[in-house]
Specification:
Blueprint: H1 2-19, E1 30-33, E2 39-41, E3 47-54, E4 62-68, E5 71-72, E6 79-82, E7 89-93, E8 103-110, E9 117-125, E10 129-132, E11 138-140, E12 146-153, E13 161-167, E14 170-171, E15 178-181, E16 188-192, E17 206-211, E18 218-222, E19 224-226, E20 233-243, E21 249-259, E22 263-273, E23 276-280, E24 286-291, E25 298-308, E26 315-322, E27 328-333, E28 340-347, E29 363-373, E30 377-388, E31 391-401, E32 409-414, E33 427-434, E34 437-447, E35 450-455, E36 467-472, E37 488-497, E38 504-516, E39 520-529, E40 537-538, E41 542-547, E42 552-556, E43 568-575, E44 578-583, E45 598-603, E46 615-621, E47 631-639, E48 644-652, E49 660-674, E50 679-685, E51 697-706, E52 709-714, E53 724-728
Parallel strand pairs: 2-9, 11-19
Antiparallel strand pairs: 1-3, 3-7, 4-5, 4-8, 6-7, 8-9, 10-12, 12-16, 13-14, 13-17, 15-16, 17-18, 20-21, 20-28, 21-22, 22-23, 22-24, 24-25, 25-26, 26-27, 27-28, 29-30, 29-36, 30-31, 31-32, 33-34, 34-35, 35-36, 37-38, 37-45, 38-39, 39-40, 39-41, 41-42, 42-43, 43-44, 44-45, 46-47, 46-53, 47-48, ...
Length: 729
Amino acid sequence: MHRFLSVFLLIIFTAALCCCAGNPFPTPVQVTVTNAISSIQIGEAPVTLTAVVAHDRHNAGVTWALTLAGVSCSPSCGTLVPSAPPSLTAVYTPPSVAPLNQSATITVVSVAEKSQFFVFNFSIVPAVGVTITNKFTTITAGTAPVTVNVTVTNDSANAGVSWTLTAGGTSCSPACGTLTAAPAPSFSAVYTPPATAPSGANASPTITASSVTQNSQNDSFTFTITSQVSEFSGTYAFLLRGYDDTQLPLVMAGSITADGMGNLTAAEVDIDGDGGIVRVPPPGAGTYTVDTSFNQVVRGSFTITSYTYPNTTVEISMKFAMSGDGTHGEIVAFDGSGDLISGTILKQDTSLFSGNAAAIPANTYAFLLDSDAPFGGRIVEGGEFTLAASGVSGGLADLSEAGAANPLYTAAPIAAGQATAPDSSGRGTLTLAVPGNSIQYAYYIVNSSQLNLVEIDKGLVLGTAQAGIALAQNGTFTANTVNTVNPSVIQMTGFDTIHGTNNIAPDVIIGVMTIAGGSTFNLTFDSNDEGIVPGTHPTAPGVVTFDPTTGRGTISVPGGFNTGFVDSAVFYLSDVGTGFIIDTDPSNNQMVTNNAFSGTFVPQASNLTNNSVSGNALARFGGSVIPDIPNVAAALNFVEASGSYTGEGDLTSLQSQFDFVPDVMFNGQFSFLDTTSGHGTAQLPAMLFGSPNKNFPVTANFYMIAPNRFVMIGQSPGVYSGMVFVDPQ
């Protein structure tokens, strides 16, 4: 029995030795992760990690840990969710925001043998950033293509973006335009608007740029495709001066309403052709067109079709160039009437005359009225008046006539006069009466600070055709109000009689003036008197008086006439450094002559720089004291780096000159000479000043008021000049 047991045990031991002859000890468990990551970006999809455990006889799986420096970091470094035990997978989801420490560790430990594990570190990379750098909110159908640019950050593959053009979530091309991507890797695309504005959802498409590396990262913008006519919309007041087809003075004021779809839904106009009064009553109607082909500047024309001039088929038609915000522009008459007039067009604040708000615009106003009366009888008037609910309640006025021995009246009191409330166009009437002189005007409300004025009583008192503006006097004046904190830029227009003849020629002045101590006047200016150009020069210091109760002041400059300025002038302030000025010289055998100068002065901006003239602007020529100066409403583009500019405008002139010429293209050079005084120079085609040698370059000088805003006159000897106004686009 014992022997049998011993043999049995020997057999079993021998069998065990045989079975283990190649590996006397068990193989340890081995843990690996087959798809360990080295980096992952914010915003990427979750990753399923897979562990492989070799020699785990119990199939116990693993445990998972997400740490940073040995400490759990979830959720700031993401989340790690293991599958159910025995776990061999876990889902890692990166955080939505990159952590401050952009690294983490995943540790995988065998459950069967905890001494066996697998560790890997990885980086958490910020998401790819996609930014479209030049988004736009509107674009006009039919305009030039636009290059859309994108910047991409945190893209190690530098793979660029893909582009889509959609409306309502689906592709909309070509109805909403086309989008052509640059070759891969793409960082730009060219959007071309459709020829005509689409309707419905296609009128508001979306451009999207998506990262090729990380498609979830994108940027987009939605914009509106407008028709060109929609670039001109709202209610506008206009005021123009110049001459009719017989070369007699003509002034015109009015209002139109554009519906944004090419129609004028309202129109009202007052015209004074030296006693020939015409009124185009409301409601009026018409059409308009818009062209943005010159550097996206809104230029266009409108026609009042509800009215034709008596005994003709001629309708009132204008061409204009408007600012980018649609608030202001330059305008010129352009129809078959032969009228040579130009001026301004300004958006009206309709809240001041809509419904129950239609009340007399009560305020105290400073005003300036010009009249180029026939046969050299230019008359200029400045003053201030108060409008109350009952009408005009008082004021003061000064009036001068070219060549008159003395001003026709000086600080004459304005008596109480009638006024009417505005109609739906902002038009009302008022009467300004001084002793022996009572004149009725139509006014058009522009805004709470400005009225446009035009004479409507046939000019029987002065034989004039007056028009001008009235500006609200802001605040309470004091004795110090007259002092100019910054210099004011002054512009004045008058005329002179050519020596030995009865012919007249324009006399224009621009410059910078200062008033200090309430009593001292200084002026540095340029002038052009009958084509005589003395160059930039100062006047002798002048003496100023000022009445803060009325805003009226006087300037006395002994010997000023001999420098090309005036010996005496009167001004009315509307605000500090802002006002109207007229010539009050007596005429004394040509030693001193009243040239009927009138004009404005406005504060000059501080810190003007060489790039204060750059980009788009608007320009107006004409409205001068003689019909020989052409009228132009134009758009300009200045390139500061090269000192060059281009322009396109609509020109009207005498038939003996160039007649009516639409879309005149011109160009030249400019230079900002002195940023302290705001003084600069430019070259302009001679035709803009009426010279028959239209290609001859005329030198012009300007004084800056603010960036892209200045006044300018021609400075070539022998070439007449009117005043040129340049305003920001």
